[in-house]
């Protein structure tokens, strides 16, 4: 799909064709398969949860993390929103800034362009009192990997508020999260936290470490998500992103969280000696 004429400054995908299929039809079919498998496996439905304000999803290659991510994204299928705030870590920051965003007009995926909501970014910057550096041609996969799922499940076009945290401390995460809530207040919006869990432990150890983090997610405890890593009891590469989304979701009315799926890379590869953990969750307002 070509970009509309008004969108000429596109961030090209550095991962299409590697982390997920590069052809639109193949990509759509793979996402749809993951969603169908999640529908068949999962008893949780969106109406039983209430109004979903945010989700947490992993960000590895789709072969490994797609089946888990589908358990979160299936619950927002058909939702119509103005903007989606995707908060992720940044694995290779280009400077010492605590937070990054894009300077481009749109992100490009095989499913088409996703326009960037620069007005929302400016509102977050003003409210957070945290430096947010705009960068071009970033290589960050953790944010982009969520976009094709969103393009596939949401009803109609949406704008994107992309935020990538280099500083994942509680201080920065809370400032960003609360500023994000202020920026999105009164708008039809969805929050997405992008994170994987523990990296390269054996399956038994990973299951234990990941359960500690997921317990804090289920308890809707953003401080705890960060604290358990500081204490060496659990690990999430996007802990600050998750905490920021939890703070934002709370300020936007969410009062509960639920972990809806968990797996490791070993469940796909069959190698349980060095695995990466993946979790999916939703943050919602009870009906």
Characteristic terms for this protein:
single chain; 287 residues; alpha/beta; Protocatechuate 4,5-dioxygenase, Chain B; three-stranded mixed beta sheet; 11 helices; 12 strands
Could you give the count of β-strands? 12
CA-atom Rg in angstroms: 17 Å
- Could you tell me how far the N terminus lies from the C terminus, measured between alpha carbons in angstroms? 39 Å
Low-confidence parts lasting 5 or more residues at pLDDT below 50? none
Secondary structure class reads alpha/beta
Q: Give the second-level CATH assignment, the architecture.
A: 3-Layer(aba) Sandwich
What fold name stands as the CATH topology?
A: Protocatechuate 4,5-dioxygenase, Chain B
Roughly what percent helix? 25-40%
What portion of residues belong to β-strands? Answer: 15-25%
- Report the biggest beta sheet as strand number plus sense, adding barrel if it closes: 9 strands, mixed
Number of discrete domains: 1
How many H/I helices? 11
Instruction: Note the overall shape.
Output: globular
Mean pLDDT: 95
CATH class: Alpha Beta
The CATH fourth-level homologous superfamily: LigB-like
Which sequence of SSEs, written as H and E, runs from N to C? EHHEHEEEEHEHHEHEEHHHEHE
Quick recap:
The protein is 39% helix and 24% strand. The protein is built from 11 helices and 12 strands.
């Amino acid at each position: 799909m070509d970009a509309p004429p008004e969108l000429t400054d596109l961030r090209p995908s550095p991962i299409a064709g590697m982390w997920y299929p590069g052809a639109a039809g193949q990509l759509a079919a793979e996402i749809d398969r993951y969603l169908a498998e999640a529908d068949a496996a999962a008893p949780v439905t969106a109406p039983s949860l209430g109004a979903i304000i945010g989700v947490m999803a992993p960000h590895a290659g789709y072969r490994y993390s797609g089946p888990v991510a589908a358990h979160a994204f299936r619950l927002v299928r058909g939702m119509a929103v103005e903007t989606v705030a995707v908060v992720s870590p940044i694995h290779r920051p280009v400077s010492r800034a605590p937070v990054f965003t894009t300077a481009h007009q749109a992100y490009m995926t095989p499913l088409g362009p996703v326009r960037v909501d620069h007005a929302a970014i400016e509102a977050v910057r003003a409210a957070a009192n945290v430096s947010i550096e705009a960068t071009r041609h970033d290589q960050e996969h953790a944010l982009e990997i969520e976009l094709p799922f969103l393009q596939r499940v949401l009803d109609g076009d949406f704008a994107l508020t992309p935020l990538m945290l280099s500083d994942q401390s509680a201080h920065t995460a809370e400032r960003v999260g609360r500023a994000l809530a202020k920026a999105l207040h009164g708008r039809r919006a969805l929050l997405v936290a992008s994170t994987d869990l523990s990296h390269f432990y054996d399956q038994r150890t990973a299951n234990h470490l990941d359960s500690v983090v997921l317990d804090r997610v289920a308890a809707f405890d953003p401080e705890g998500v960060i604290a358990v890593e500081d204490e060496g009891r659990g690990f999430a590469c996007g802990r600050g992103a998750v905490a920021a989304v939890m703070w934002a979701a709370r300020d936007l009315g969410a009062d509960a969280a639920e972990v809806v799926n968990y797996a490791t890379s070993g469940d796909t590869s069959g190698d349980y000696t060095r695995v990466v953990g993946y979790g999916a969750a939703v943050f919602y307002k009870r009906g």
